[in-house]
Amino acid sequence: MNSRSNILKKIAENKPASESLPVLRFDDTIHYADKQAQFITALQNVAAEVLEISGYAAINTLYKNLQAAGKKIINTIPEIDDLNNQLPSLSAENLAGVEIAFIKGLVAVAENGAVWVTEEQMQNRLLPFICEHLYLVIERENIVDTMHQAYQKIDTASSGFGVFIAGPSKTADIEQSLVIGAHGPKKTTIIIIN
Amino acid sequence: MGKPVHSILSKNFIADNDRTDWHDETLFMVRKKRDYASNQIPEWETLRQWASQIKAHTLSNLDHYLTVFEKNANANGIQVHWAANAMEHNEIIYGIIKQTGISSMVKSKSMLTEECHLNEYLQDKGIQVTDTDLGEWIIQLRKEHPSHIVLPAIHLKKQDVSDTFHQHIQTEKNNNDPKYLTTAARHHLRNIFIKSKLAITGVNFAIAETGGIVICTNEGNADMGVHGAAVHIACMGIEKIIPETLHLSIFLRLLARSATGQAITTYSSHFTSPRKGQQMHIVIVDNGRTRLLGNNNFRNSLKCIRCAACFNTCPVYRKTGGHSYHSIVAGPIGSILNPNTDIKANADLPFACTLCGSCSNVCPVKIDIHNQLWIWRQQISKEGYAGKTKSLSMKMMAYILSHPNVYRFSGNVFRMTLKYFPLIIKNKLNPWYRQREMPEAPKKSFRQWYIQKQKSEFKKQHIKKDS
After folding, report:
1. B158 vs A174: CA distance, rounded Å
2. How do residues A118-135 score in pLDDT, each as one tens digit?
3. Which residues of chain A does B34 touch, with a Cβ-Cβ cutoff of 8 Å?
4. Which of A122, B14, B102, B396 could be bridged to B198 by S-S, CB 3.0 to 4.6 A?
């Protein structure tokens, strides 16, 4: 007998009588009076930077200034600039020197500062991790209270890859001292469009 | 060489007082962060209850959910493999590596691959895997094992890391600034990430409904490895399954808050299908878990989501360090899991516990950890693995406690000894005294005091009546 059927047979023999799933009342979980204020507090707790901006025109100015400063930038938001058709097929070697990436987030979570990004927005799965400074753009009406509301809003199965990102990469593996910038971005800025 | 025993191994750890205190205080600080984070959530206890019930439901239908998961994963283009034990797990992974012909690979943190000793196995075959979680990489360079499942290098001080990095990647001698050392590791490992074509990861949650998996990291190392690689191999125990995506919201709210006091890890990555042109494999491993499933006493331990809250709160773990547990998973949860794999080799572990119950109070999936440890003690003693000294002293104690006259006599002897001949007890040959101070001996026993008191009360009352 192969291991698959062997394991399944053992489980069938050993599992206890069926227990029922709990009734989940997500409406009874925490709601914030001011979701945006709570989201900003949560972002500060995860060492992210926050920019509140009026609209895409203002982001465009920021983007142009960074370009003028000679930064190596990859943009994935059509409202900001033309897209790079080659991006989906770029390798780790190709992306190694990227300083800045602009990616749009679909949902933002007030309780923990996490922003949901899928493969469709990032276009290359490596981009949000390999860049040195990540800009995530979120529209204020997409801020929800907790992870419960976030998962009700998103469909994880509709894209091959999706990620909640809460701030820059970090580690405390040496004597529990927090160091920002482990293997991913050293800096993450969340742009909230009001 | 005798078999490793917690009480003896911990002597090495506590030999350095300052280091022991640092370890104790640092982990208790992590425990306090957990308290603070959980107190921000009014529905915390409800979340624990839901998580525990979802896990209980899943375990009672595990064969169903595993087959649903497999079907959906296959539909997503993921190849699913099944391994009965550690050896088969390692062979499957070696088979995939051989087929692809790739020789450079990275691994993100996976306690399962540690449990199966994958690194050593592949090394024997001439294949070098680089661990990429900073803590795991440090201990890999030092040829050690993790002492904690979330903070693998918590037994080390920054000077140890500085020495190790100076030796292996030529950092400045004695520069022990954590930021400097982390940056050096970042640069070194980035080159390895970029060249690696195969990535091995663990799995935090596997979702039956979508056939996808979720991996949580703070460093971004799992994603740096996987998205650059042509082949992704993810390894999971059969108990990692949850039924629906919506359930993730509960587990992700609990996991990081319980582990480090963070509201969420930096990255919660959802892998549903391989990248275009990428190969993705999932290895589902039993390795003793189905046996645990069949055991009414210990089944609940399969609910564990490996947050290590029980480690951080445990007074024994904090004071003795992870390596004293001579197992890959240390701490209270490890002391339940390890005797299941080898009762004889791990018979000492359930006794490395004060039964204070703090572990059960912080467990996000409400495993009755201390109760299970107490049951293991009984089983281990019954099966004759408790060790001669322990069995003999327990038998003596049982005899004394069940014979009132003997109990009274030995109580008197003990009080007299402590009063007149204290050195018989207060000496370093008595193992009980080594880490403890003896109390002041009371003049009489409770029974003697009570009888005398009754007599004097009786007298008082009768004298009153008479007068």
Report:
1. 6
2. 999 999 999 999 999 999
3. none
4. B102
**Below-50 pLDDT ranges, chain B:** 1
Question: Is the interface score ipTM higher than 0.85?
Answer: yes
Q: Any idea what DSSP says for residue A81?
A: S
**pLDDT by residue (tens digit) across A27-72?**
999 999 999 999 999 999 999 999 999 999 999 999 999 999 999 9
Domain boundaries, chain B: 6-156+197-291, 403-466
List C-alpha distances in Å: B68 to A5, A160, A166, B241, B243. Answer: 14, 18, 31, 10, 9
What's the rounded Cα separation, in Å, for the pair B374 and A143?
47
Burial of residue A115 (CB within 10 Å: 0-12, 13-18, 19+) is buried
Residues 6+ apart with CB under 8 A from B111: B146, B149, B202, B306, B328, B329
pLDDT mean over A78-98: 94
Report domain B6-156+197-291's class.
alpha beta
The DSSP output letter for B441 is P
Chain A neighbours among B 253-282 (CB < 8 Å)?
Answer: 253, 260, 262-276
Chosen from B166, B224, B246, B270 to mutate, greatest number of chain A CBs within 10 A: B270
Quote the DSSP letter at residue B31.
Answer: H
Exposed/middle/buried for residue B329 (C-beta within 10 Å: 0-12, 13-18, 19+): buried
Cα gap A54→B447, rounded to integer Å: 81
| Range A32-193 has CATH code 3.40.50.10420 | yes
Nearest to B264 by CA among A153, A124, A104, A151: A151
User: For residue A1, what pLDDT is reported?
Assistant: 57
CA distance B347 to A30: 44
With CB atoms and an 8 Å threshold, state whether B270 touches A26. Answer: no
CA distance B383 to chain A (A): 22
Where exactly are the structural domains of chain A?
A: 32-193
